[in-house]
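pasting for ref. prot 1 ->
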Amino acid sequence: MAACLLVVDDERDMLEALGRILPRELADLEVITRHRAEEALAVVREQSVDVLLLDIRMPEMDGLDLLSAVKELDPWVTVVMMTAYGGIETAVEAVKRGAYDFITKPFEIPDLVRVLQKALERGRLLRENMNLRQRLPEQAGFAGFVGQSPPMRKLYDAIQALARTDYSVLIRGESGTGKELAARAIHELSSRGRRKMVTVNCPAIPEHLLESELFGHRKGAFTGADRDHVGLFAEADGSTLLLDEVADIPVAVQTKLLRALQEQEIRPVGGERSLKVDVRIISSTNQNLEAKIKERTFREDLYYRLNVVTLSTPSLGEIREDLPLLADYFLRAACRELNLPPKSFSVAAMGEIARRDWPGNVRELQNFVRRVVLFAPEREISLAEIKAVGDGGGRFGGQAPGPAAAGDGGIEPYLRCRDQLVERFTDDYVRQLLTVCEGNVTRAAETAGLSRAALQKILRRLDLQSRDFRS
């Protein structure tokens, strides 16, 4: 099926020229030309437009206003602005209103073609994902992932290739991008997948216990060691060991870990002989290991042992075209978790989700959708409900509540309103904190300036589980 390009310009000579040239330069392309804003809006109402090439100077309606009107009708159309009055302020304003790119007149046809090729590819992916949302009831992805964008397809290919090897893999990516999910996919698709993968949350284990947890200990090895303990390396024998947030392993333990990887054998704390183990190592981090090597807080030789192959998980900003699939998937999951009838997002609500930034990545989006489901009573979630839950960046809860109306027409007491506001802030703050820290309570407490015990007490009060925020 040919893609549809709508060109809108009040200069008829320009329209006629582009209408002749672009179908020759771009294969499988239907080009529609209109010289008035209302005519362009009528086209968008009547049919699916993949890319809109729009002049910013129009006689009846300003091009920026037309851009906003088009986005209200169809949030998924990809818009390229063109103008002879270009400037950085105009470009920024156009992007804020949803434009994908910007080209200044006069332009060379090859330059315009390159811009339109990128825009058409983006439009194709967006439409493809919209179709997948309608066709697939559960997910469009691979091994627990959701998404069909080029970065995700590249990730799927890499996972399958790595599953055929026994190499050590270092998975790198921002918080909330699914590093543990990638590790689990590699393991389960590998020859070791018949056995359970063992995961070590490195920063969650105190330094003085980490060696014992990794390698085990013998009875009497230290105070409190009243029995033999099998370490996680031995538990993972014949399987895969995931060192989650490997950058947080203390240097003293790094030395012993290096020996275990080199020799494929471990010696329990207090033990007199070493034990052979057959373990594949996958590690993950969101930190800059190269910088830590320079700071001498991470061993360079260990880095090369762990980093035989690097796998990168894309941020949500790199896979924006997958947002509809992800949001729908999390919406279905949240409805199942809460035993609610299925819900859906309105076109405007989904457009708002797609426009927002998600610094906490997929995990932040998932938690946001969970909150939306709680507060949306209707089967179709509206734009107003999306905005009411929060600002979409995980920042705390949108507008602060004002004094609540009392039954007699007055307002609620000050202390009650204050407590409600504090509780709402605390809930939003802790959710964002755990999202950023990937469910690591120790790191979250340090970030917030709280003791671990104090944060645990808050989690119990809010009925939050740190494991729900881990990738």
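and prot 2 ->
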Amino acid sequence: MSGRTTLRHGWAVSLAVLATITLTISPLAQADPTPSPSDQNSAQSQHQDQTETAEDVSGQADETPAEGSEPLENIETAEAVVTETDSAGLVTSTTVENPSDEFTVKDADSDPGTEANAPDETTAGSDPVPTSPEAEQPTPAQSTSSSAEPSQATSASPTPTSAPTADDGTTVLEDIQTDSVGGFSMVGVTWDTLTGDNLGLHIRTQTAGGWSEWYEVTPDQEETEQRATGVIYVEDSTAVEVQATGAAGARAEGMRAVLIDTPTQSHDPSTGSAAAAVTGEATVGTVLATNSSVSQPNMITRSRWGAMAQDGCEANSDTIKAVAVHHTAGSNNYSSGQSASIVRGIQYYHEVTLGWCDIGYNFLVDQYGQIFEGKGGGPTFPVHGAHASTWNWETVGVSLMMNSNTAQPSNAMLNSLEDLIAWKIANNYLNPLGTVTLGGKRINVIFRHGDVMSTECPGTNVTNRMSQIRSAVASRVQGKTYSNIYDTWQANGGAGGRYGVVYEMEHGVSGGRQTNFAHGSIYAASNGTIYAVHNAIGNKYAALGYEHSVLGVPTGPEICGIKDGGCYQLFQG
């Protein structure tokens, strides 16, 4: 095998070390279970339009594939060879391939079908976290990787066992055995072709406590160009097994297991850290009379969790009309200090492995109530995420860092989720109990991923709480939605009037508050005085970046009728 070195990305926090190992294995003949690697192919997927982030769960551990399915392609850890390392040693990506590049279930008369190109909904297995509703805090992970380099394997080659099979007695057609590959804590699967009926993918890993239960990652049959599952957290592991199954005539080609190591860093935020979160906007004493808007909750910014720079993202949405709730799947067994490293791993998989421009989610919330800023662009703006395909447009994607099929969300997680959604809903002037039509579907303003796509995401336990979540958000918003900015906007026709739809949600700035609309801006000074910016001045103000530009906030009204015609307005800058 040959290797090559290339610089990929530097972290915003320079010590945020992350390593990736990609295992690419096509099955050998059944008589020879030992892989014979060929020259690796580590080419990344081409940049795709961000559509569906496949972080979603639709089943349980040890789940049996549909009756009539047969194993297609099975991957277990193989001899890994480093193919790409950045010059700073921050990212290592390893690819292993066998000479064979295709495997088809043995049925010569069957039609192999068409290629399945969609991103996948991830179904995760069981984990050691208590699942009772009374468990307010999850059990922290027992071990945390803290070194910059992945730990080296010390155990012997694992004894392979097949993934759960159907009741018809089907057996594994191919099982590859190798030594362990070193340390990793997150796994994703990609492929060139995976098509046919009764398709299934199963993942398990070897941890310090032995082999984990199987996590099922189910291919989504939606027609897109992305051929991948989401990445799931699997705890500190040293070996992996991935198995594809399908009915007669199904086909698997170019399967790859992507193993990501995201060591924690001493500066990573946690619930016990004084620098755990960046404080949200302050409440301004007398602003907005008796109807103070819902304040921004504490949030861990991208720079704090060590985000990579974006790579050519699309423009923002025009406005925000709804909030989508997701979960990330995988193991629930992590500490608050590990959360930032998990978010880094998700971003790396989305941006580097899948070729997206950034992490797909707009926000993430961990089991300890920590809120992480997701995709870049500013938390108050309508950033176009990559979490629900057609429903990425005009929505906010919030992902809970848990597997809701195997555990209950903690009270801390739910409280932070509800605070975050209330902030977005109230200051975008939305009704938390309302409905909206998006992508041809009539959905709740606060909806679950599974309401718009074929997935159980955000899992059983969060799904069962969606009505409760909406009610909790409504109670936070009640009496705080209507500000004098809102009143001015409504008096001028609301979304269909002079100012148009909300673009940048209402937020605190320069001792007052401001909302930026499609056709202007309204600023409320600390004494409640309103200064509106619109018409030609408003267009120029928007083009410069609103109050974020050198102009700052308006300090007076628009004045027209000056000599030789025209209007002027004074600004802070």
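The chain has a mean pLDDT of 72.
The chain has seven helices and 28 strands.
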